[in-house]
């Protein structure tokens, strides 16, 4: 028996899947030499790719930490979540720079920015849920 769509909850790994999708999307679009001139790789493109990958990698490592009542592990997990959130905040202005440098369409920038904000919001919700869950840790 399936759960009605309106009653479904977000999967626990949705933040990781969405962060991975953001990294993959970013890599794919930035590797198109017709849009992202390779002459700008060291100036901006590599930073964009690195930041998108950092979001996923930080979230991945945070998810791998089992708190099990340890304040130190809870703090490390929180730090990694905050690092991923900060990388989302870094990616947005990089996208805006890319919009100007590469003359990206408003539609592409809006889609890419929305994906970034969605991941950031999921990371914040995850961090807040952990704070409540581990507040006694």
Topology:
Layout: H1 14-30, H2 41-64, H3 71-102, H4 106-133
Helix pairs in contact: 1-2, 1-4, 2-3, 3-4
Overview of the molecule:
This protein has 137 residues and is an all-alpha fold. It has a single domain (13-133), classed as Up-down Bundle (de novo design (two linked rop proteins)), CATH 1.20.1440.60. The chain is built from four helices and no strands. The protein has helices at 14-30, 41-64, 71-102, 106-133. Helix 1 packs antiparallel against helix 2 and helix 3 packs antiparallel against helix 4 (106-133). The longest helix has 32 residues, at 71-102. The protein starts with 13 loop residues before the first helix and ends with a helix. The model has no long low-confidence stretch (mean pLDDT 92).
Largest sheet: none
Count of all domains: 1
CATH class: Mainly Alpha
Work out the number of β strands. 0
Task: Give a quick summary of the entry.
With 137 residues, the protein is an all-alpha fold.
Record keyword descriptors for this entry.
137 residues, mainly alpha, de novo design (two linked rop proteins)
């Amino acid at each position: 028996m399936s759960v009605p769509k309106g009653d479904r909850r977000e999967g626990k790994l949705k933040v990781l899947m969405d962060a991975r999708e953001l990294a993959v999307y970013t890599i794919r679009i930035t590797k198109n030499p017709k849009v992202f001139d390779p002459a700008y790789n060291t100036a901006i493109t590599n930073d964009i790719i690195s930041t998108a990958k950092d979001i996923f990698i930080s979230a991945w490592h945070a998810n791998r930490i089992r708190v099990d009542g340890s304040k130190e592990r809870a703090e490390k997990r929180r730090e990694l979540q905050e690092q991923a959130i900060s990388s989302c905040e870094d990616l947005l202005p990089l996208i805006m720079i890319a919009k100007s440098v590469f003359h990206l369409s408003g539609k592409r920038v809006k889609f890419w920015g929305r994906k970034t904000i969605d991941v950031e919001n999921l990371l914040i919700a995850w961090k807040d849920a952990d704070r409540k869950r581990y507040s006694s840790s």
